[in-house]
Amino acid sequence: MRPTTFALLGGVIAAPAGAATVTVTIPKQDVAEYHRPYVAIWLEPAGGGAARTVALWYETKKTGKDAGTKYLADLRAWWRKGGRSMTVPADGISGATRAPGQYSVKLPDGLKPGAYVLTVEAARETGGRELVTLPLTVPNPSARGSGKTELGAVTVSAR
Amino acid sequence: MKPFTVRLLAAAALLATPAMLSAHRMWLLPSGTVFSGTDSWVTIDAAVSNDLFFFDHQPLRLDGMKVWQPDGTPGQLQNGATGRYRSVFDVQLDKPGTWKVGTAMSGVMGSFKVDGVEKRVGGRGGPPRPGQPAPLTVADIPANATDVKLTETSSRNEVFLTAGAPTTTVFAPSGKGLEFAPVTHPDELIAGEAAKFRFLIDGKPAAGLKVTVIPGGKRYRNDENAMTLTTGADGVVSVTWPAAGMYWLNATATDAKTTTPRATERRMSYVTTLEVLTP
């Protein structure tokens, strides 16, 4: 078994799925009290399986009694899909919340070819919560979607 | 001073209806059920009322309130206070996993006659009332008693709270009375999805058990919107949540499997409050 496994792995490494990028837009909100949203981006195999967190933006710097991690469960879908068993901060995944604008995040290299579902979840204090779900295939993923309130355009491209 | 007979009748009427069988519902209402971060606290209201979850009748006493940590060992209840309509207390969820908080009460109630005079066994629970004699117990029934009618009662009222990833140790059944053995974790309930819960009586699946599920927020709608469900042969009931929110779940069972000498009936009740989240 072992040599075969190695051979397969070698195959994957030799032909990487390529650098794919997801671009997420955080829209401006016309509100009196604005807080940057918590955002989680994760990938799940379409046929079911463990979710893989691609990015997590939260109040990483706030610690102590009301630490930024206290509100991670407000990203309810992500929390259930695996956030709750993840250790944060997570290298290369978690980062500070983002101001309104467009942000690009690289999808992980070496994803096994197949069908996936990408989800972007945003939850804003004194604001709303929204999920944008995009089906995509690896390699060469390409997908486009948009939220209505908490998220703007979400695109995935094979670059 | 009311005439003695009137007081006696009133007392008998009160005693004849154990709290668990009256129309009034006891409930616990946690501030949340799913927690993240490193310093999680839950605060819980405890009350008895008709409409869920509005405290407008009686507080639920905190005497029998217990906390089970995720590993099953006893935890600590903090900042407990009992007001006119509700009790409130906090639990610091300082260990990851699923916690259980609630009461498990059991008792014997009924009546017997001595020299033609009827006496009651068992009280209404709660702390001793000053100026009133303590309720009689089974041990107080004299040898010459006649017309002994005794009913065993047991009731559980509990909620489940999860800090971090959910665990299942606190669901381990004791094998005594009516118990909740969830198939779907009670802190993973989603609107529109079906959840499965198993009920056990003395550790065995409780088939044909009637289970009532009522959404909170009664004041803001006309209908009770109660779901009446029945467990299958495997003791499992399936609940599909129509919307996100807090739900009160109650199951009751009666049988003749008593352990107290001369008791003829056993009444069991289970109550939990469940939080259903949006998808």
Automatic annotation (TrEMBL), chain A:
Superkingdom of origin: Bacteria
Keyword Signal: yes
Residues spanning the signal sequence: 1-19
Presence of the UniProt keyword Signal in the record: yes
Keywords: Signal
Protein name stated in the entry: DUF2271 domain-containing protein
Originating organism: Sphingomonas taxi
